[in-house]
Amino acid sequence: MANDATFEIYVRLLGEGTECSRPARGVSLGHGLFRLLPANEYDREDEQWEFAPGSVVRVKEVRNEDGSYLLAIPADSDSITEAPSY
Question: Do 69 and 57 form a contact (C-beta atoms < 8 A)?
């Protein structure tokens, strides 16, 4: 059975002068991997995303004073100790 659920995954924006990110949609590929979906608002001339739509990434849960969110990290990243299971 295919899992058609999508997840909100934040992608870091590069070259912005301050740390910021953009929400994107992604689908789980299993084993902690996600594929970022095409986004109508993606304009490579306007913003440089750390991972372009179509990229396969892992996610890590980031917690701050506003709650928590999923942040895209490299698919081969060893910087996470336990991947969220989605």
Answer: no
